[in-house]
Amino acid sequence: MYECVECGYKTDCLFRKLSTEVIKLSHCENCKQPVDKYIEYDNILTGIDATLHKTQAYRHLIHNSNIKSTMKLWLVYLLCDVYVAWQSLKKMSCDDADEPYSEGVFSMLFLLAVVDWLWYVVVLFLLITLFTDVSTKDHYLRTLVLSSFGKLLSLPALIWTTMHENIYFILIQIFILTSNITALKGPPF
Ligand SMILES: [Zn+2]
């Protein structure tokens, strides 16, 4: 089943093919708007709308797109977290900066990143269940992964940010949290 990006109404059809190159967007039975206008959008525009916290863009990504590799994306996020933690360790260390860290340190950082993610997933789930009217709990993990793309911003922060690095990382965390909450917003009925 697909979902109308405007109102969240369930539907089984996003568009009709009129010819090999022409499609006609289906309209929602509930709100009469096109079920998913992002079908005709470029991926970059969809990404910009997601960055701007538009719920419709997230509904498209979560319910109507054919992104299947959320597990791979999650692994990329974990590796980003590990790399950030590893760089922080390197800066704090008094040792020679070029000295490579052992596999044991990498494994420990990876394990910590997994525990950190699980902790975040559980706490956020409890918070939205107890204190908000966010109603989209279906596809919870998929929603969290797809809306946590802000984690990738950690890499340019490490490369280009020399001052105010901590503030930048805090802003990234806030951006990820607000993206997650926007994506988890359910239909308004
Ligand atoms: Zn609708």
Secondary structure elements and pairings:
Elements: E1 2-3, E2 10-11, E3 15-17, E4 23-25, H1 43-51, H2 55-64, H3 70-92, H4 103-131, H5 140-146, H6 154-160, H7 165-184
Residues 4, 6-7, 9, 28, 30-31, 33 line the site of zinc ion.
Commentary on this structure:
The chain crosses the membrane at residues 73-89, 109-131, 143-161, 167-184. With 189 residues, this protein is mostly helical. It folds into two domains: 2-64, no CATH class; 70-184, no CATH class. The protein contains seven helices and four strands, in the order E-E-E-E-H-H-H-H-H-H-H. Helix 1 (43-51) packs across helix 2 and helix 3 (70-92) crosses helix 4. The longest helix has 29 residues, at 103-131. The protein binds zinc ion. The site of zinc ion has 8 residues, from loops.
**So what's the overall shape?**
elongated
- Poorly predicted runs are none
Number of domains: 2
Proportion of residues in extended strands: 5-15%
The largest sheet has its strands arranged as 1-2
Bound molecules: zinc ion
The quaternary state of the protein chains shown equals single chain
Distance between the termini: 18 Å
Order of helices and strands: EEEEHHHHHHH
Rg from Cα: 20 Å
**Number of β-strand runs:** 4
Instruction: Please report the number of helical segments.
Output: 7
Please give the largest β-sheet.
Answer: 2 strands, antiparallel
Helix amount, in percent?
Answer: 55-70%
Decide which structural class fits the backbone: mainly alpha
Mean pLDDT: 85
